[in-house]
Amino acid sequence: MAIINQATKELQVKIVYYGPAKSGKTTNLEQVHANVQVPEATAKGKMTSLATSSDRTLFFDFFPLEAVAIKGFKTKFALFTVPGQVIYNATRQIVLRGVDGIVFVADSQYDKMEENVETFKHLEENLKTLNLNLEDIPYVMQYNKRDLADVAPIEYMDFVLNNREVQVPSFEASASNCDGVFETLNMITRMLLHKFLNDGARK
Amino acid sequence: MGQFPQLIQEDLDLLNVVMGELLTKSEAHVALLVEKAGYLIHQCGNPASIDTTTFATLGSNAYNAVQFMAQLVNESKFTSMYQQGENFSTLMVNVDDNSLLVVVFPTHLTVGSMKYYATPAAQAIAQRIVVASERAPGKGLDLSDLNPTDVQALFKKQ
After folding, report:
1. How far apart are CA A61 and CA A55, in angstroms?
2. How far apart are the C-alpha atoms of A29 and B11, rounded to whole Å?
3. Which of B6, B146, B157 comes nearest A35 by C-beta?
4. CB A46 within 8 A of CB A29
5. How far apart are CA A188 and CA A182, in angstroms?
6. Chain B interface mutation, best of A95, A97, A103, A178, highest count of B Cβ atoms under 10 Å
7. What is the pTM of this model?
8. A137: chain B residues, CB-CB within 8 Å
9. How much is the pLDDT for A198?
10. Rounded to whole angstroms, how far apart are CA atoms B109 and A158?
11. Which residues of B touch chain A, with CB atoms under 8 Å apart?
């Protein structure tokens, strides 16, 4: 959960990119890291990747990004990815600890649809082990790899992955070309800040 | 697993005293208070050469991973973790359910002496966190100045 430090006027929030193996979670972070406009160099931290020798995420990728989203408060966004491979499910749970917002990165190719669904189920299960409920956490869907052949139509992706009482925002993306990457990030940050706004109003 | 409380200046002053004393007595270089989700809450000492944000994130996740591992062999009591280096070593001591005290120290100092000083420091920090939690457990952030349209595109592409 977000950390509010009234003394230093800082808000820290954690956003996790979750999805099946090779769906483009790390690429999303790399593109944000490489292309984001920052007012000063210190606003963007170093990207850390704990990967295998074959460049597959072993534990997580991480980088911190600062912005002044709220007047008078420095907001620090900690962006994480989880490993996509099922064998690393335990580490996914660890990375999800204290999550504030989630980007589910789905692979749009037809033959990846079963893996997308399976991974989404794992996400819900992993959150439950942490006593969290997906319905309480802002999340968005990103349908990645739209530049490839044999991709499913958006309506189909929505039907398969986003077919709930309340549909969450979804974005088409081609993360390797940086298409849809910033739109996705901006939506999840906006949803997070709205949640803080609403939660604050209730108290 | 509750939420880490909001801290006010009074809390930070106490953290400075406790963590400062720890560094003076133990001769360690850096002490970090880290929330287990990966957030750096407070730091003391001389972290000039360390990216403390990344250090905090890696430390907390490493600690969580080893705790998870310990649970798999039914080991529920897991209170500290030690990384031995050639020049600097790191000791991570559990503070409470949500936070850790991370101490970086030169290798000529022993981990035993570090634990000796870090354990009471962690207890003092834990007590302060209880005080902070009781002060305003449900207090949210005042976002009355926030205009939601301002955050349509918080991050822009170069």
Report:
1. 11
2. 34
3. B157
4. no
5. 10
6. A97
7. 0.88
8. none
9. 72
10. 58
11. 1, 3-4, 6-9, 11-12, 35-39, 41, 51, 53-54, 57-58, 61, 64-65, 68, 138-143, 145-146, 148, 150-158
Q: Which residue has the higher pLDDT, A184 or B46?
A: A184
Q: Indicate whether A10 pLDDT > 90.
A: no
| Cα angle: A93, vertex B94, B3; to 5 degrees | 60
Question: How high is the ipTM of this complex?
Answer: 0.81
How far apart, in whole angstroms, are the C-alpha atoms of residue B3 and residue B138? Answer: 10
Contact of A190 with chain B, judged by CB distance below 8 Å, is answered with yes
Q: In the 8-state DSSP scheme, what is residue B107?
A: T
Per-residue pLDDT, B150:
59
Residue A76 token pair: 């620090």
Q: Which of residues 46-65 of A touch B (CB under 8 A)?
A: 46, 48, 50, 59-60, 62, 64-65
Q: Where are the beta strands (DSSP E) in A86-166?
A: 101-107, 139-144
Distance CA A13, CA A47 (A): 17
**pLDDT tens digits along B19-37:** 999 999 999 999 999 999 9
Average pLDDT across chain A, whole number:
91
A77 exposure class (CB count in 10 Å sphere: 0-12, 13-18, 19+): buried
Instruction: Give yes or no for A39 touching B (CB within 8 A).
Output: no
- Give residue A121's pLDDT band: very low, low, confident or very high (50, 70, 90): very high
Query: Around Cβ A26, how many Cβ atoms within 10 Å?
Result: 23
Of A69, A182, A196, the CB nearest to B157: A182
A48 and B58 in contact by Cβ < 8 A?
Answer: yes
Q: Does A182 touch chain B (CB under 8 A)?
A: yes
Over residues A47-66, the pLDDT tens digits come to 988 887 777 877 889 999 99
